[in-house]
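Subject: complex prediction, re-run

Hi both,

The earlier run crashed halfway through, so I resubmitted it with identical inputs.
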Amino acid sequence: MQIVGITTQQEVFIGSKTRNFRINEFLIIEDPYQNDLMGEVVEAKAFNRYIPLNIAGDFVDSSVLESLKTLGYNIDEETIYIAKVRLLNEALYPVQTGADVRLPEFHEVKDLMIKTKKEDGLVLGVIKNTDDMAIDMDEEYKNLLYTFEEKGLCPQREIPYILDVKSMHHYPHIGVFGGSGSGKSFGLRVVLEELMKQNIPTIVLDPHFEMDFSERAGYLEDNTIDFKDKFKCLQVGFHVGVKFEDLSSQDLKNLLDAASHLTDSMNNVVDVLFKRKDSFSSFYNKLQMLTEAQEEGSIDRIDNRINYADHQEEKKAWEKRKELYLSYDKTCPYNSVKGIIWRLKRLDNEGIFSKDVREIEDGLQRGKLMVIQGNTRILQVFSTYLLNSLYHKRRDYKDALYKKIHSEYFPPFIVVTDEAHNFAPKGYDSPSKSILKEISQEGRKYGAFLILATQRPTLLDETITAQLNTKFIFRTVRASDIQTIKEETDLTVEETRRLPYLRTGDVFISSASMGRTIFARIRAAISSSPHTENPFDELKNKGKEDDEKFLNVIKSKLPINDTELLDIIMEIEKETGITFTLDSLEDRLKQMVEKEYIKKEETIFGYRYKIIS
Amino acid sequence: MIFIYNIHNDLKEKIVNLNNSMEERYREVLSIDKLFLRRFIEEYIGKITSLKKLDNKYLALYEAKGGIVGVDGSTNRMGGAYPHFVDIFQGLAKSTIINNKAIFKSDLYTPLFSEKENNILAEDEKEIAEQRNKLLANIEVEVALEAVRKYKPYAILMDGSLIRYNIYSYDSWINLRDECENQGVLLVGVIKDIKTSIIGDKLKEVYSNINVEVYDRELLFGQLQYGEMIIINDEVNKKNKEGYSSIFMRSSLQPTVIGMDIIDSQKEYLEEMGRLVFTLTPENSRGVPLWLDIVDKEVQISDAIMKGLMERYMNRDLYERFFVSERAKRN
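This time it finished cleanly. Structure:
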């Protein structure tokens, strides 16, 4: 390997007759006039001067090449390999043309590749194309993980990529970008596994119900790691919810707003009517009674109601309504109050007010990963409340520490969410956006961090995107997203051009703490996602299952003549409780014939279904 | 504009005239009936046979017996008019067996250092051309000789007629010939541009009414089928007295015909070598075996590299003084 062509202080070309270059590979240039220079391959090309088969303008047919091959000459061996290499640090002078180039050894690149010990960081995968350097790697970095390659599961051959989680204190927040099927969710899973290994308190907002870590991946034979005690899946409205009594009027407004947008006058209604320590029912009743009074229309009619009440109870209730009417009718228009009522009702129906967040807080205190599941809209509502509450708990603790007053300990934590553009969209307001924005801007000081994954970085709020100091960029095809990535990361033009063609699981990691972009491959996950079964396999398996069930039911009754179908239907109903009509049974039997479980034959008495012998 | 047009007009007329006079001169010969000509060739020149491509069994055998070596040379001239230039020659012998390293040799010539004193200009021109041919032929023979000694190939394909070496590099050529005969290496020359007039001369001899000079090149144009070969009878082959047997062959779909020489002691392999050349020639090419094209491409030195070498390894002062012409400084 040698430097060829015109060089600069930043970039050189390297030529070789024998070694093909790989992109993102590291090479050391032994410049005779300067110290050894380290560079990274940014473009790799192979060139054969005889191919395309055009020699002196002639088109060469393959039979001649075949003949030459038999004579011992393989035209492929005339290939020249050329790499464009960017120096990691600018050289003092342009590199000497003709200088030798060699592969670095592990100790020469260790500081560039590995920033932390495997115990202190997240072992997320391998740095691609480093297998040559990994040969003499320290033992402690070997055999940490497996990766998936075309041929299946492979033991680690390359230098591991270890994310220095401590550096998040200086370079907070991680963005995970990539189109669907690019390995984004998978990458997120691996990140979460590592967070669990480190016992870092984490909140995961999981709109896809996929972040379950209890299943071990079947492909890892020596898999002994069990995450069962390290995480908990909680569904909003079922396991966790909002304790109404703990809500401030701002919280309540946020929640109602998440249910459906609040007008100014509705905001006002909450401010006026909601009192601290109101329970759900006391607040709801208050609203209800006010509207009933308003529906009467005037104070005279309410008085009428009071005067002509059937009994004491009713009288009392109408007196109460009158009281509310007098104090609030002017400030709370009927329609706004009605609006609040149906929003409240909607939230209640989703079960949000039936539980509290105690369990989440406890889990975080014990360093667990808490997975909050629910549909996107519910999660938006709930996370607004939850994150506000958790963040301020943490913040209060830190502030109290500073003011030297006693306060209950609350740990630092990480918030992880997929489809982050739903929680913090660009261009319009969403309740969860303000809290995410707040954490993104000042969470670092209090030890609250974000890991936001999205397939549409373009739709993610820009203030938040700007705060993501580490970015994982998987395959991205949309031009607008690539444009955003170009603007928001230090990916080079060559790298952004590769984005649409990345393999699933290959990722550019652009990190402020590394100071450059690393091309890595995410490791095989230790746990498996509940959504891995191919839906088409599922259909097939389900069909087969049903067929076998049905076969078991009718097996003892075979052969079945078409004349006795009615009797059979009754028998089946008696034995199993399954009801068939004449048509549906015949249909089902025909299906079984088609699938060759049974066969149909003609007899002198008509059709007969019988077992295949 | 009009001025230029007038000049071109003048030139146009001249070209039209050329065309007319050529037509007049060659009409008779070139309109000879195809069948008649083929019969004539069969009778007086040699047998026309149709070749089959060699199959891989043969080729694998060749590989086992040392492969095929292609030999070619190249020249470059740096500088201006006499005597301020330098001619650079490079010869290459390349084996189809990839592990047999290609053999390169180079040489250079400049009239500034010719042994003889400078004489009259006209004579110099000839002498220089002679000198160049000698050096080039020599270097080609040398690389071929080294290839024979080092690799003992099955056959050597030289680029161009073998007769050239007789003329320009007699002593080393005889050396190579002997070596090949002793070692059993087939020695073949492949001629892209045939310059003989065997058929034309015979036509003139037989039919006294034909009295124009025609070369085989134009006579055979389009007359042979793809893969057909004429084995030239030794009696009519003018190269025979120098010790060669020759053929003509249409080796590609192009209507042009190429030639091939072999040393007469190896005459029995003539057809086999013809088939080899045919096999190695792509059907859509100009008719040259691909191997020789590859060797040719590899032996060429680009002017840019030549210039770079001169500038790098010559004293700038000397280089400018002697070898940079006014023409080279034009843009």
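The first helix of chain B runs from residue 2 to 30.

- K.
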